[in-house]
Fold this protein.
Amino acid sequence: HLPRTMDDGATSIMLRGLPPHQTVEGLKGRLDEFALGKYDFVYVPCDRHRGRSIGLAYINFVDRIHAKRAFEVFTTESIARTSSWSTPRVSQMHVQGLGPNLAFFLASAGHQHLRNPAAPQVFENGVRVPRLEDAVRKFVSRDLMKKMQEEVENKRRDRK
């Protein structure tokens, strides 16, 4: 059961149960309805073999106000819909903030995926940063990268 609230300073949410045809563009269109220019990280992971969404999305907002609004919007939508496997469920992410989310992606997927079309999209002042490498240089310090690498390794170790 997912919590119905977010921590006060949280800015990152995760959506689960998205349909396989969900695209990052479609999700951004939905986000723009209530948070235009107020998110800076959107990632809709895809199955590498099928090229389709695996049903998840990770979103970071520029402030807690818009993150909370998104949480409420997606929670309300989930409650209002009939039960279906494609009904999105929202939760607070364990990783919070633009830099940490970028570093966590890098630690999980590796630098070789920075130019993958399915890699996260980063935005600055509502405008997409064209090269993910530039966003990484700007928002991910060496210390942060090391911390996220350790976190990913610990998670992998815990799964065994």
